[in-house]
Structures are given as C-alpha cells and as structure tokens.
Amino acid sequence: MKALFFLLCLLNVLFFFWKLHFGALTPSVEPVSNIPTLLMVSERQIARRGAQISAYLDSAAAELQAKQVTDILQRLNPPHAAWIFKTSTHAPKSAVSGRQQAAINHCYEAGPFSDQDALRRWANTERLAEFKAINKSIIVASDFQVYYPAGKDAEQTRINKMMLKAKGFNDVWPVSDGDIKGAISLGVFNDRQRATLYKNQLADQGVKAEIRQRNKLRDQLFIRFFAAQGTSFKNVGYTRLADLDCGNALK
After folding, report:
1. What distance in Å separates the CA atoms of residue 239 and residue 190, rounded to the nearest whole number?
2. Per-residue pLDDT for 149 more than 60?
3. 0.85 exceeded by pTM
C-alpha cells in the first residue's frame, strides 16, 4: 500500500511539471484586434438613459448649490439693510429740492442812500428780513471844465495862450496833466448847463472851446440783500450781483 501511495504521489508531481512545461498555467494573451466592437440596440438605449440621468443629476446639483448661496447671502444681508439704503437714496433728493428752493432768491445791491435812516426805511418798505449796509467808493462828477484844445507842441500852446489874452481872456492857465495835457483851461463850473452856456459865449467870440467832466471818488451807502428773481424795487436803483457777494456780506 505504501508503495502504491508513493507511486501516485510521484505521478501527480510528474503531471504537474508536464503541464507547467507546456504552458498550462501561463495565461493566454488574446491578440489585439482593430475591428470595432458591435453595440447592441438595447445597450445603446441604456447608455443614453444613463447620460440623461447624469445630466439631470448635474443640473439638480447646480440648482441646489445656487439656492444655498442665495440663502447664505440673505442671512448675511437682512431685509432692513436694503430699506436703510433706500432711505439714504431719498435723502439727497430732499437736499437737492431744498437747494433748488433756495436758488430762487438772488443777490441784489440797491442805492445809494443818503444815510442809515433812509436805508432802513427803504428796507422796511420792501420787507427785507435780512440785509447789510455797504459803503462803496464810486466815481461821481465833481465839476465841468471849459478848455481850449492843446496845440501840437509847446510853441503852438504859447501862441494859443497869446491869442486868448489878446481876446481879453486873462484868467487862463495851461493843463499840466491828464488826457488833455497842454490844453488851456478857461473856467470850471459845478454843473454842465452853466459850462455849456459859457462855451456858447466863447463861440460867439470866435473861441472854439470844449467841455470835459472831471470826476472824483466819493463814499456812497448801499444795501445788499437776497430777493426773488424778477422782484422790482421802488425809488432806488439796483443791480443783481453774484450770490457769493451777498453770502459774504450777510455773514
């Protein structure tokens, strides 16, 4: 029996090595084929259904993510924040409308007035709530000078002076400055009417004289105030100024 057992074991070992020698235990490699695989109609429908299901799942996932982002933003920005912003946007509008109402008034200057009492009486008559008196130096006519025009040179001026003295005008003197330098002054009058009368008398005597108005600076009293555009003011001359002028004056 032992001999039979060992004989069977020897045969099994020999059979194993025989199989190993002829490649029974080596996995077979299938040759690579370039022939495209055939796809059955049922397999194609299953693949399409799978692609549609995958697209639907992707769309649902994107909608879910968007909803989550919206919920987060709403929690970070509560409804009252938007209301505050809306209120703040209306605030400048009322400020603009206020400026538009204030812009209806403009700055004016009226005068001159003889004194402070006359100025205040006029302000009360016009019902001015706020105003300020302004002293300004303005050019006013001081007098009117009758003169004989200047000669071309000093020699001509000397001849003109001799001619006037020959006609009996002894109270004459040359003008030494200004725009009529070299002319010969024949007289000075406080009003134009008397100066014109004297000029005509000189013309009758063959003297062609001229008249010039001489000016000087004089302090005059004016009033500055705000008033609605188009308002007319009585018994006084007035001009419109830049609003900044009244703003500075009424401070």
Report:
1. 28
2. yes
3. no
Residue 194 has pLDDT above 90, yes or no: yes
CA distance 85 to 54: 44
Residue with tokens 């009360």: 124
Pairing assessment for the beta strands 105-113 and 131-148 based on DSSP bridges? unpaired
What residues contact residue 133 under an 8 Å CB cut-off, 6+ apart?
A: 116, 119, 221, 222, 223
Burial class (CB in 10 A: 0-12, 13-18, 19+), 232: exposed
DSSP 27: P
Q: Distance between CA atoms of 251 and 131, rounded to whole angstroms?
A: 10
Residue 120 tokens, joined: 């205040």
Q: In what order do the strands lie in the sheet with 173-174?
A: 173-174, 184-189, 131-148, 210-228, 105-113, 238-241
Pick from 20-29, 187-196, 228-237: least confident = 20-29
Q: What was the pLDDT predicted at 88?
A: 38
Q: What are phi and psi of 130, to 5 degrees?
A: -145, 130
Report the C-alpha gap between 218 and 142 in whole angstroms.
10
Helix (H, G, I), strand (E, B) or coil at 239: strand
